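> forwarded from #structure-qc
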């Protein structure tokens, strides 16, 4: 059962681009030379112009039909990994976020004009989606304690879980996120996650 809902936009100016995540996505090339750093700065400026982050979430009850099943209100998820991640939490946040369609348009444009810029911009936008996810996590948990977030497609949680999850939190209406037949999200720089709430904070 849904206990609370959340939705809104995030001002890109309020969330910086993590240097650690950037280095990871670029394979350690950040700070490598002046040409590369100049390209990174150019792509970062384009990213902040194109991004329009939006997110939505619900606080929902959790139950555990067995040691390899989790019920979050939108059907049973068969996953021992998610069970281990959440148990014995009684509540969880289910959320989604996107950088918006402007980032996808910039990616399509760069794919036709500059292979180097496309590579860097793609890496930066993936890093920035994680930064926005961190910000959503911060907004949701406040001063409370939560488990590490877990996303469909990781471990033994099927990617197909995206469909009922996004429907449950009304993500298409609130964020514009849609799914392909292969359960890939559009806009492409989007993330879904499940985050358990420690029982002492409920």
């Amino acid at each position: 059962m849904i206990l609370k809902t959340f939705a809104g936009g995030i001002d890109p100016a309020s969330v910086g681009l993590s240097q650690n995540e950037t280095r990871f996505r670029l394979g350690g090339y950040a700070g490598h030379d002046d040409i590369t750093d100049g390209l990174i700065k150019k792509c970062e400026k384009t990213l902040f112009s194109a991004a329009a982050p939006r997110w939505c979430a619900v606080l929902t009850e959790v139950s555990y039909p067995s040691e390899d099943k989790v019920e979050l209100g939108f059907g049973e998820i068969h996953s021992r990994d998610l069970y281990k991640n959440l148990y014995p939490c009684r509540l969880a946040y289910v959320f989604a976020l996107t950088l918006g369609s402007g980032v996808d348009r910039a990616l399509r444009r760069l794919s036709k004009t500059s292979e180097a810029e496309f590579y860097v911009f793609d890496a930066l936008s993936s890093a920035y989606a994680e930064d926005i996810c961190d910000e959503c996590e911060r907004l949701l948990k406040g001063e409370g304690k939560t488990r590490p977030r877990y996303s469909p497609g990781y471990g033994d949680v099927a990617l197909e879980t995206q469909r009922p999850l996004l429907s449950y939190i009304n993500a298409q209406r609130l964020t514009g996120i849609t799914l392909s037949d292969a359960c890939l999200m559009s806009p492409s720089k989007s993330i879904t996650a499940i985050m358990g709430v420690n029982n002492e904070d409920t």
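QC bot note: DSSP finds seven helices and nine strands in the chain. The beta strands are 2-9, 54-61, 63-66, 69-71, 76-78, 91-98, 178-179, 185-186, 190-197.
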